[in-house]
Give the backbone structure.
Amino acid sequence: LRLYKPGLVWPLEPEGARAFVRGLRTVLVVEERRDLVESQLKQVCYGFAERPTILGKRDAEGRPLIKDVGELTAEDIARAIYDLVPEGERTPLMRDRMAALTRRAPPPASLHERAPFFCSGCPHNTSTVVPSGSRAMAGIGCHYMAQTMPRNTLGFTQMGGEGVLWVGQAPFTDERHVFVNLGDGTYFHSGILAIRQAVAAGVNITYKILYNDAVAMTGGQAVDGALTVAILARQVAAEGVGEIVVVSDDVARTRAAGGLAADIEVLDRDQLDAVQRRLRERQGVSVLVYDQTCATELRRRRKRGLAADPGVRMFINPRVCEGCGDCSAQSNCVSIEPLDTAFGRKRRIDQSSCNSDLSCRKGFCPSFVTVRGATRRRPRGGLDPMIADLPAPAPLRLELQPFNIVLAGVGGQGVTSLSAILGMAAHIDGLAVRSVDMLGMAQKGGGVFAHLRLARGAGTLMRPRIGQAQADLLLANDMVVAHTTGVAAVLNAERTAVILNGALSATSEFTVRGDLAYDRAGMIARLRARAKTWGDLDAGRLAVEHLGDAIFANMLLLGHAWQRGLVPLSLEALDKAITLNGAAVDQNRRAFAVGRLTADRPEVFAPPPAESEAPQVVIQRLRDDLVGYQDRTYADRFTDAIAAIAAAEAALGRWQGSLTLAAARSLHKLMAYKDEYEVARLYADPEFARAVAAEFGPGARLSLNLAPPILGRVDAAGHPRKQEFGPWMLRLMPLLARFKPVRGRWCDPFGRTAERRAEREVRDQFFEVLGEVVAHAETAEPDVLLELAKLPQSLRGYGHVKAASLEAYRRRLTDLRRRLSDRVQVSLPAPPIRERIDA
């Protein structure tokens, strides 16, 4: 066997290559991606009288051999070499190795994926939106990810080629105009040349240049050179751009920076849609500068004291929330997460990742509370005596073979920082270490993992990547990333210890699919099937409760694993590495200690056991809520209707209680529709005050974001406009809640709107539907009846959001009732709610 490794792959140095291949029968070229060396080597050997067979991407029969798509692993190469070794030269060790690879089943396809996404509060969440009927083009930068979102962004080009595709397309299409996204770093590098070319070509195009004050895609570096909004605007004006508009999240800050020409408008970002509609109608090249600092860079500056914390947070009242997802649609923010409650799925804000962009409150919903003067709740105390008495575990000795550690998590969780700390600790302990961090597009929401290999001497570390089924320890801060094929492939049920953060973080898919249901049990089962040793703790919750921020969950997991004797590093080396890292040293030390304590005294951190509630308990809770909503007579209507469903279900022995529960939840939702009196009652409920205090502590100043119908203000789309009301509005809520007896009566000042009439109409209609379910329980398709019972739970939102939901509900209800029986006369209220509002 000969081995030749060219240092320069193109152009390939011919003399050394010829000397290497002379006398060989077969040459296998191993290279990633395209066949760059292979094709050159064939050309070098063309004049040989006796040429070797050169294989690479294809074998001698033309079948795929060394793959050019995806990851090329050492195991892939081993299989290719083994096939070329003559049978007589294959050793028992070779055969055993290949047999093991053949027996090893590949991981099944992932149940969920953690795709990259814009960070919480990222300016791209707003800036990449285009008006209805328009499209945008992408280039180099974080904004490229808009192509994976419902933002009508298509196309891709190299840095400096933004908009060039449109110059070629424009003469051959009826489309008059396009938008092009461009970051300030790319603009300063070469994007200005693309603008110059568009001006010369005379095309109708609007460049949306994000000035976010950082080269965000590669780590938040400053732009190399002097660049401000004013300089940028003057540069493009000098290039011949016809109209320039600046849109900002803080108009006062942008204007205070100065330097802008007098004829350049500076508008609030709320006017972005109107500005874009205006620019797309003009001839020639225009530029829209979007001025908002990179969310991740702003977060760094706040932590370092280089930028002021605004002191403003958003909080969602879960009882008022309808779970409609309009807040996600408006903000595109991954800090809005699902919250499963006794009254259905709602939304919550992950305060650990929130960057206080406040776009979420634009969602048409009265559940958003603005919190000022808030400080995150103080971490729990009382653990110090137990931490001081922690026993040292039996040390894990490093054997002759390397020890392999995998870290898995989400971008922004500190995975690569933990990798660096572990590598430094190994160095302090005198061990050899090799590591590789897989980042990819690891913005918040994207999966990240790291491989670390520790050994007594560097001679045993041939590669930084961990091979298939060769991991000794997996620290998984995210079960979605951990169970995916790329990570699961290195796990081994006879070797790997898995320490998992059992809390499930929502993926970016939830932001655009609010009804997404996660298969948490399936992901955990797949990981347990590939684990020899198992540990499962709610590290995110524990990090928030005992350290004030979920960012410390990774260090907490490491402490848990170390205390169980699963990490071959000394306590002294780890502590010194944390100190040398220099970031949040005291908190990281405490997180490590709390993690150790979770392993030594798990009973201290055990949550109360979750009890599966009997259907009778759930139904009683819903009935009690309706008593509070209106009165006992109103609640009795609920009880009677559900009792009829339960009797029919019991008589037939079908559904095992699921039909009754579905009907109860649906009927409660329709009967407890959230009018002004109900929203007031839920804000007056002491449970709301307790929830805010638990999140932020006492003393926070609260404001409500509401769109009262009596004010009648509307936005550009004709929808009611929300306004912020100070603490006095909260004091008014108990008084308004007392007027619930007039609900639906002639004297109800709110009850005559189209929305309220439709809510009562749908409620009364569902009593008829439940009667039909009882009447046809024996003869109808069970799935149809169950879907009918569940259908009202799809009705979500307020105002125009609920109107759209109601239209879809009516269409589906019509279909289901027709399927129920040909004898059922379908008579549904009409016209649709949206037409009623217009009328």
Observations:
- The longest strand covers residues 447-455.
- The chain is about 40% helix and 15% strand.
